[in-house]
Amino acid sequence: MQSAQTLPILAYHSIDEFGTSISVSPEVFRRQMQWFAAHGWKTLALSDAASRVRAGRPVESRSFVLTFDDGMQSLLTHAAPVLAEHGFCAATFVVTGLVGRPPEWYRMPDPYRTIPLLDRAGLEKLADLGWELHPHTHDHPVLAHLPFEVQADQIGRSQSLIQEWFGQRGGVLAYPFGQFNADTMRAMEQCGLVAGVTLAFGSRLDPAHPYAWPRVGSAWLKGSNLRQRLAVTGWLERYVALRSLVKKGRERHFQQPTAETTRGLVPLGG
């Protein structure tokens, strides 16, 4: 049986000065990327990482993957120039039904709810710079709150539009809010997705479970060189595992479907 590989997939959202739970300041982001470059780390494209891990082909040491959820405007203005300086590649997960529109979904911090996501022209600019575009569903619902057929439509439509608009396969899904269930994985298989990434913390990617790969969230890096090194080399994983036993994770926020979590895609109540 193929063994898991250590390959940190970093998860960012926005590069800005808002100071929210999903913010990383431009200066901190620049320092983080400088640290990787100075210590000999190289990026691996998300699609390449998925194919390598699934096939059991080893990845080079000091490889990492950069991902950005939601396709926010700051990717073009702040992230892309820094990555270009170091020759780093990245991927963003696109909410295809809200391209060019404000991200007014459940629990989105207020500063972003009036700022449109990148439009198709902006996403095309990222693609021209070598970024990969992958699906983040069509409407950004909590997938686990939807029946199988609706989940399959959300995933398949997002992937199809990425192919139609940008000519990219979009074979890896980022689950909105990190939430998924058995129906989600069935839907992913039906749509031909090769991998799915979560918001669970970790850097070990198991080829036997490609639809449940963890990532290293930007909040864990904390703007500290030591913290960054510990996060990407796996030393924080034991701490996070122990912490999760003591304190319940994000799932506590998603017990019952609501109009907000389902984005109005299914009827609720009786």
What's the CATH superfamily, by name?
Answer: Glycoside hydrolase/deacetylase
Q: Beta-strand percentage?
A: 15-25%
Low-confidence segments, ≥5 residues, pLDDT <50?
none
> What share of the residues lie within helices?
25-40%
Structural class: alpha/beta
Q: Judging by the overall fold, what is the CATH architecture?
A: Alpha-Beta Barrel
Mean pLDDT: 92
The main β sheet shows up as:
8 strands, parallel
Number of strands: 12
Tally of structural domains: 1
Distance between the termini: 47 Å
| CATH class call | Alpha Beta
- Indicate the CATH topology: TIM Barrel
Question: Which features does this protein show?
Answer:
270 residues, alpha/beta, TIM Barrel, 8-stranded parallel sheet, two-stranded antiparallel ribbon
What is shown here, in short?
This protein has 270 residues and is an alpha/beta fold. It has helices spanning 26-38, 46-55, 74-86, 120-128, 148-166, 182-191, 225-232, 237-246, 259-262, and strands at residues 5-6, 9-12, 14-15, 23-24, 42-43, 63-69, 91-94, 132-135, 172-174, 195-201, 204-205, 213-217. The mean pLDDT is 92.
Explain what you see.
- The protein is of the alpha/beta class and 270 residues long.
- It has a single domain, classed as Alpha-Beta Barrel (TIM Barrel), CATH 3.20.20.370.
- The chain has helices at residues 26-38, 46-55, 74-86, 120-128, 148-166, 182-191, 225-232, 237-246, 259-262, and strands at 5-6, 9-12, 14-15, 23-24, 42-43, 63-69, 91-94, 132-135, 172-174, 195-201, 204-205, 213-217.
- The strands form three sheets. Strands 2, 5, 6, 7, 8, 9, 10 and 12 form an eight-stranded parallel sheet that branches.
- Strand 5 (42-43), helix 2 and strand 6 (63-69) form a beta-alpha-beta unit.
- Helix 1 (26-38) packs parallel to helix 3 (74-86) and helix 5 (148-166) runs parallel beside helix 6 (182-191).
- The longest helix has 19 residues, at 148-166.
- The relative contact order is 0.15.
